[in-house]
Amino acid sequence: MWLFAVLLGALAAGAIRRDDAARTVLVLLAGVSTAWVLGLTWHGSAELVHDEYAPMSGEEYWRAVVGPAAVAALAGIAVAVVGLSFRGRSIRICCAAAAVGLVIATVLQPGLSINTIPAAGVLAGAAVRVAVPIGSAQTRSSRIFP
Questions:
Q1: pLDDT digits (tens, 9 = 90+) for 7-53
Q2: Exposed end of the chain (fewer CB within 10 Å): N or C?
């Protein structure tokens, strides 16, 4: 899934011209990637771990080990989704905060990093895609080459 997120994220960032559409695709891609890894680890813990002598069940183990990282990751994705409704600088702040949330999730559970770091990169790409309003600032190239 991480490779899919990286390749599709790069394609979306480069091919989609409208910033709001590109941001939406990138945020949804990061959300799907994160939900996929959390769902897959939950399924693996719940359905594939059965030890009658273990001190806790697979679900309890997942909640104890992956739970804090899952909360941080889902909070980050929620901030990014809410940020899609804003305009201007608020979008950049929300997407950057969401990327930081996924990095925090990675610190809490490094085993998830194979999927959370690419999702954080996709969210950082969404933050970069925030357009500067026309007339508010000039680019360096427009000052050099009028």
A1: 888 888 888 888 888 889 999 999 999 999 999 999 988 887 777 77
A2: C
Cα–Cα distance for residue pair 133/59, rounded to 1 Å: 48
What global pTM score does this model have?
0.80
Q: Which helix (H) or strand (E) holds 107?
A: helix 89-108
Residue with tokens 């399924």: 43
Instruction: For residues 57 and 63, give the distance between their C-alpha atoms in angstroms, rounded to a whole number.
Output: 10
Q: Are 83 and 91 in contact (CB under 8 A)?
A: yes
Using alpha carbons, select from 118, 66, 137, 77 the residue that is nearest to residue 101.
77
CA 84 – CA 136 distance, rounded (Å): 21
Sign of CA dihedral 128, 134, 135, 139: positive
Tell me the CB-side half-sphere exposure of residue 114, using CA atoms within 13 A: 9
Write out the DSSP string of 64-85. HHTHHHHHHHHHHHHHHHHHTT
Of 42, 69, 77, 72, the closest CA to residue 57 belongs to 42
* Sequence-distant (≥ 6) Cβ neighbours of residue 88 within 8 angstroms: 130, 133
